[in-house]
Amino acid sequence: MRYFFHIAYQGQYFSGWQKQPGVKSVQEVIEQTLSKILKSPIAINGCGRTDAHVHASQFFFHADIEKDIDFDLLYILNKALPYNIAVFDIIKMEGKPHARFDAVQRKYDYFIHTYKDPFLSTQSSFYQLNNLDFDKMKAVVKLLPQYKDYRAFCTHPDKYEHTICNVMEADLFVNPKGDRLRFHIASNRFLGKMIRIIMGKILMVGKGELSFDEFESELITLQSSKLSLPAHPTGLYLSKVTYPYLNLEPRTEFINSAQGINWISI
Which residues form the Pseudouridine synthase I TruA alpha/beta domain (predicted)? Predict the structure, then answer.
């Protein structure tokens, strides 16, 4: 029987979702915990990959479990997992739906605060920046759904069969004080470090280091006109994953309360 697990995790102490040798990953921790509880090896498949230190306020994985579950697996799994991984729902599925390949939309939110705040340091990305040009930043964000090929916004584009992404939503918000920002983007798929590269470019535009025309030229020519470092991973959240047959609201308090801030669409 195939099960979908609806989870969330804080990513700052993990080297991403994907299991890899020599580092601590979310996938490995969950697989080891499930295997111990069920007393048999369990392999899981996630809805995607997140970079090291990136959060997921909503994430799904699937697992095939042969034995009947005649106990409260949700309760026991949450007790056994570390504090920074939570399981909200375990859903029995019909057939063999796939957590990664069946997803039709993924949403990400990136949070920035421009003043030092110890209570935001693990939840939002700190950039001590003043006098950002929000109008120019908003203008380049609005370009994103108009283009499909994001080759210029990927660290290793040649490892993909193609670099086409159907960006459905892109918006930039600021709080009334102007010292916290939220970048929101939705697409059917994302490339390696794509959102963090875009965010880094948006900040360059806000600081006057990259023009509107230069930003759009990268979308047109598929080549970076000016190199920039990807934005810090800390402020990035995979915030919603949607399937044709499953559309659940995120359960995490931070993402809901943060999105509930009186954000102003610039």
Answer: 148-244
